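Note to self: keep these together.
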Amino acid sequence: MRHQTLLSALTALLLGLGLNTSILAADELPEITEDGLHKMKDTNLGLVYADPEADLSVYNRIKLLDASVAFKKNWQRDQNRSYAHKVRPNDMERIKGDVARLFREVFTEELTEGGYELTEETGEDVLLVRPAIINLDVTAPDVSSATRGYQFSESAGEMTLYVELFDSETGAIIAKAMDRKRDRERGYMQWQTRVTNTAAAKRILKSWAKTLRDGLDEARAVASKN
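Structure:
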């Protein structure tokens, strides 16, 4: 019974982190990874691997590593074909830095509100979270230019989260998952600025942060009943 309840708690944490794997056939994905993680079944939420024996209720503190950020392949080229104001390498570095800082800000706020302490230490009660934002696709970036430009789109864009959870003391991997999210389609064109792009990114990041917090809360609730 305890095995099943702990698996349910871990699943609750990570099944909110789904990946659109339509480009992959189900039989191309292994049932068990080389590091012993099991693919979670019976979910439409995407690709999730987890250790079925893990007990997340023992973690009261979180060591959150900085998120690495990578743009969608050929994003700069495609942008520069479509818009008069060209995206330069320094624009890309600024955007990546902004996303990484916003990631930490949103996750820190959500987790601390839930009573979890953020730490730089390792320990038996410390869960290490290693995140990455990949396939970042900002539909209409607000880039610096000598002349004022206006860029319009129905959506601010999309990004994919790849996250790994480790026991910070032993280094054992607990779970890994991916989730692709796109900013809402409004059905009409909107002027996109740095402010609107940041707001859209924050909405997506907050949903992921809440998934992590809810999963940790659920693990605690399950453990308290046993």
